[in-house]
């Protein structure tokens, strides 16, 4: 089995207790996992991940984080 090269943001410091999202390419698929639970892996295409990131940067998903009643 081929070893997966997981990468995390340079903004995440090294060491234990630092939760972050890690990314890896597996063939033509992008795999994502949280460093706190590396057994759970989500996969997507680069195009779909790019669209998600663009939506986040544009604020199109901010309503999902809003606290009801505020």
Automatic annotation (TrEMBL):
- The protein's name in its UniProt record: DUF397 domain-containing protein
> What region holds the DUF397 domain?
5-57
Species source reads: Streptomyces rhizosphaericus
């Amino acid at each position: 089995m081929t070893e997966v090269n997981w990468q995390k943001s340079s903004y995440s410091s090294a060491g234990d207790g630092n939760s972050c999202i890690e990314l890896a390419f597996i063939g033509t698929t992008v795999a994502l996992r949280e460093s706190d639970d590396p057994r759970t892996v989500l996969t997507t295409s680069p195009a779909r991940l790019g669209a998600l990131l663009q939506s986040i940067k544009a604020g199109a998903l901010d309503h999902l984080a809003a606290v009801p009643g505020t």
